[in-house]
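STRUCTURE:
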């Protein structure tokens, strides 16, 4: 018995000795087995991914720290690893001209070098002309998906008389897309269904790209790997207020959900971006969701799934005109830590009528083709200052 015990003690001593030798001599092993790394795999005391940022005192927004060089292309242009990600484009056959413009720029500025696949989604089958035209623009993989009927069209439980009256009221008050049912279908689909499409199930990250947008700067690093390795959940380029008349009861629905599910709200969240009075009211700020680089698991998670179902049951996508931009923004702000929401200051982008033009030194590094003074970031009703303030 004593002999067996001595062998066990000797074996443990050897294992512990090897652990300390490897910890000091092999950086990767040391990082992987540190208490910080191990504890980040578990949830200590609340919803949301814990980790080295929990409880951190911020003095400036994270984007003020430049993207590490390790994410940039090497001088020989070799790609050694990629994230599990895709570029997602929601389009109709009639959007072909705008899709060609967007894809041509995205390929030239980024994707011809990095080689990420495209996923095209449409509520009707894509035409052979559409498929042929976009296939000529890239050497990368293309997939074309049909949106399930129930994910796109107005659900039968919506009271059409009430919805029609709401649309008429918005038309009478000149609300943009106020009378459009297809626009509402699109907002609801982007809010709660695009990430459920079968073609996206194999991916973890996505970049949403729309027709007729512009990309001004050469992007020589991989934003997907940056998101993955740095633990980011949601990325944006433009933040602005929503038109209040389109969402009069949205915040009441949000408050009702939070009151019933406080355990789902992430610690150290971005409520300060959404509200100027601790959540009593909504300041209407949102991330303009026609540009998104994000983690699909944020939407797939329990918190956002229950949140969307709660909103969908209210009918506000049809009885009002709830947009996917405020819905995604509120979801990201409540169910991710604030440092997991990233401002891509170095990606030049325009979706009419607003544009983000990177400032120095990012403007020079990206060889940006935009006027540095034509930049929405600090305009009077930009919400970027509110994003900045949650870190200071």
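SEQUENCE:
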């Amino acid at each position: 018995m004593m002999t067996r015990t001595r062998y066990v003690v000797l074996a443990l001593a050897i294992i512990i000795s090897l652990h300390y030798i490897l910890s000091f001599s092999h950086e990767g092993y040391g990082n992987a087995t540190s208490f910080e790394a191990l504890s980040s795999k578990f949830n200590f005391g609340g919803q949301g991914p814990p980790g080295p940022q929990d409880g951190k005192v911020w003095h400036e927004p994270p984007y003020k720290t430049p993207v590490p060089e390790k994410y940039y292309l090497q001088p020989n242009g070799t790609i050694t690893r990629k994230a599990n990600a895709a570029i997602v484009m929601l389009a109709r056959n009639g959007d072909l001209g705008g899709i060609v413009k967007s894809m041509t720029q995205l390929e030239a500025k980024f994707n011809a070098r990095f080689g990420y696949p495209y996923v095209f989604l449409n509520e009707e089958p894509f035409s052979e002309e559409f498929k042929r035209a976009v296939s000529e623009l890239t050497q990368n993989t293309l997939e074309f998906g049909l949106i399930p009927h129930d994910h796109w069209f107005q659900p039968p439980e919506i009271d059409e008389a009430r919805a029609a009256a709401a649309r008429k009221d918005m038309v009478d008050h000149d609300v943009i897309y106020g009378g459009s049912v297809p626009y509402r279908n699109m907002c609801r689909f982007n809010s709660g269904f695009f990430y459920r499409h079968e073609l996206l199930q194999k991916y973890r990250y996505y970049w949403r790209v729309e027709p007729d947008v512009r990309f001004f700067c050469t992007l020589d690093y991989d934003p997907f790997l940056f998101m993955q390795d740095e633990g980011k959940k949601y990325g944006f380029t433009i933040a602005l207020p929503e038109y209040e008349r389109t969402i009069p009861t949205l915040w009441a629905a949000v408050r009702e959900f939070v009151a019933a599910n406080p355990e789902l709200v992430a610690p150290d969240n971005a409520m300060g971006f959404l509200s100027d009075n601790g959540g009593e009211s909504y300041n209407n700020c949102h991330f303009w969701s026609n540009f998104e680089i994000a983690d699909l698991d944020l939407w797939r998670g329990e918190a956002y799934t229950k949140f969307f179902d709660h909103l969908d049951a209210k009918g506000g996508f049809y009885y009002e005109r709830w947009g996917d931009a405020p819905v995604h923004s509120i979801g990201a702000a409540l169910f991710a830590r604030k440092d997991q929401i990233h401002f891509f200051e170095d990606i030049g982008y325009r979706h009419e009528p607003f544009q983000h033009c990177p400032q120095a030194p990012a403007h020079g590094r990206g060889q940006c083709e935009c006027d540095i003074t034509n930049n929405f970031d600090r305009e009077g009703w930009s919400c970027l200052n509110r994003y900045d303030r949650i870190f200071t």
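REMARK: The chain has one domain: 83-389.
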